[in-house]
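In this supplementary section we document a worked example of the pipeline. Step one takes a protein sequence of length 238 as its only input; no multiple sequence alignment statistics are reported here. Step two produces a three-dimensional model, which step three serialises into structure tokens for compact storage. The input and output of this example are shown verbatim.
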Amino acid sequence: MTEEKPHQKKESIKEFLESFRMASERKQLSLLSVLEERVDDLLGLGASLMSGFETDNCDWTPGFILQLIHKKDENFIKNILDCDDLSWFSAPSEVGFDYSPLQQYLLTESFEDADRFTSSKLRELAGEKAVKRGYVYFSEVDSIPGIDLSTLNKLWIVYSRGKFGFTVQAKILDSVGGRYDKLWPRIGWKKDGIWTRYPKAFTWSIEAPNGHMPLINQLRGVRLMDSLLNHKALIAKG
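The serialised model returned by step three reads:
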């Protein structure tokens, strides 16, 4: 007769979350389906759900958990986590901008709306001339407050499983030796006229290639993107 194996006690959701939080990124990505299966257990933790995570860290794991529970219960973040505007992550601004709409767009994976919001805020951060013109000159990038640029970058990262954001694009660019002709295919931008076909030529989905979003420019050479990805605030985060 085959010896019967002793029953293994199911790991509690608190134990699972702790091991998930401490795991390598590769391991975390492999466990996302388990988190999805245990979403009811996550909701059962109530206000203590996010106690192991920091609101100011550039960590995508709490962002994924927030997206997961919001799909199951749209009122949980507002009522249980006490976030009226659904903005769980800290989002500082040197100029007093409210980034809660961006958090809401990214929370629900409304990536096109998030991209438009990001572009609008970059113009406002660059100054009145950029707003009137409708786009940012590369020479205006240095004047963009580093705190705000870091906030925009962080929010894209935390709500995209680490796939999107300025520093993600910068790392990919570095991996191809700084060659933009090799960057465009890697991040899924078609250099033969994507800007005239925007937004239909773009993929507004988490399934898009790493670095696909946000769309920095539509595009006057590479100088704007080069200036932005080399902004001192982003270099410090890279």
